[in-house]
Queue: 2 jobs
Job 1
Amino acid sequence: MATFVLVHGAFGGGWNWDPVREPVEQAGHEVITPDLPSQGNDQTPLSEITLDSYRDRVIEVLDRQTGPVVLAGHSLAGISISQAAESRPDKIKVLVYVAAFLLPNGSSPKHFWGKQSIPSPVISHCDVSDDGVVTFRKKHIADIIYNTSPAAAVKKAMELQRPMARKPLGTPLRLSAENFGRVPRVYFEALEDKAIPIEYQRKMLQSMPCEKVVSFATDHVPMASATGQFTRELLALA
């Protein structure tokens, strides 16, 4: 039996992984889908949120496990799992980046998009308050995030999505070859992604190569839009 720790991205919660939870558990494995601080059902105030908050929540889960886990991060959670791997490399069998930010030491999502020819398609459809609260405009959930997903997935996201804190977006990662660098990495790329378009996913892969790349002909949420294929590829890592 393997243990899968699946970490959600921006504006989400553990609920993002609901489509694959049951089939992975039915295959005999354990699935853990924590809510990051201030996200999902967690009530931590947004004013307290930092990248370290996200990292520490993942580390809490890793420290409760008896052996190495498959640690997956969706979208913004790429920074959370990378930073957790720096702190707990021996607790992780493989890192899985799902249409996620795969960034080198010293970079951040804000830094990455600042070097590109277009602004972030997600932040472009957000409202950012003076106190650092980022709210994605729900009218764009279907066309930017879930553009190939079933209507039920869109409805669920409309109901459950929450604002997030801005601070983690601009915090540089602190990674080393000795820790983070020795954990195997896999990338699940999404070919029809409008949130992190495929050309930008591949730019990250060019600078941060992975042992394996799996392609999904889907939107930004392949666990919802290609659940069967996603489950098979996840189980192959067990």
Note: The mean pLDDT is 98.
Job 2
Amino acid sequence: MTSLEPRILIVAPSWVGDAVMAEPLTALLKERYPHSVIDVFAPLWCAPVYARMRYVHRVIENPLLHGPLNWQKRKQLAVTLAVTHYTHAFVLPNSWKSALIPYFARIPARIGYTGEARFKLLNDRRQLLPKLFPRLVDRFAALSYPKGTAPDKIKTPMPVLTPRQDLQRAALDALHLSVGPAPVAIFCPGAEYGPAKRWPAEYFAELALRLIHEGFVVWLVGSPKDRAITDEIVAAARANAQSDDVPQLYDLVGKTDLSAVVDLLAVARVVVSNDSGLMHIAAALGVPLVALFGSSSPAYTPPLSPHARIARIDIECSPCFQRECPHNHFKCMRDLTPQMVYQQMVALR
């Protein structure tokens, strides 16, 4: 390896949506260091996202994101990473623990925000300026620029994910799904953070029946934790349709992993999603997207795509950033009607 071939390690965040927000950083690093090799040290559940980024060479599992410090295990992991002779480490989480392994691995340039008093662990520390960089994606992107770069010189490209066509075909075959002639609408009704970010199940059901009436098929996707929500959607759709079955509505929750969901999202004619990791994945795939915001704010983590529209209502208590509605009225989502969301879908066509 020569000085023209830096090896870069990105210590990644643990949320899927934050993983998507890190993609522009990889693009900017490749632009700044054209001959670099970029690896990502990330939790296993985020690996499918990083594996579909344009400039990521390898994803290395990070098993130590939560729980005890486990000092000895971190030193062991650092030894395995040191063999690669990384020249740069970009530490995206702000925790003290996240900066330990690059320090133990003696990576020469360790870049990140000061965070939890990481004065010795990082040797290229940046001051986080939330007012100048309200969006998380810009905070990550800024780390690719030399320290002291003027904020107005920071240019953040859109995140881009590339589906795996072979795995997409395998997922479709395994689920006995086909694409065409009926257009596919995909709903992402979950939100890991809490119920305050979830549009009501009966609203998803009403919108699904309207699209089915127009000739769509509707797929419900999410993690196994979303099973109760999709059960509610299917039950509400059957009740409204006065039928024991709605054959154009497919509940895929529990039948797919994140890798399959990423590739399936790419076939959608339109995606409707709560503010979640899947929302960011859909945006990065470039599919038409309606993003539903209630308790959270699109100012911090908006869907970054020219094909995305935000559906929200302007009320005094939103955004509250709470897991559950502190006022017990849930107006931010209850007053966001299926008709409003449908109109945003129409605007995308």
Note: The two ends are 50 Å apart (CA to CA).
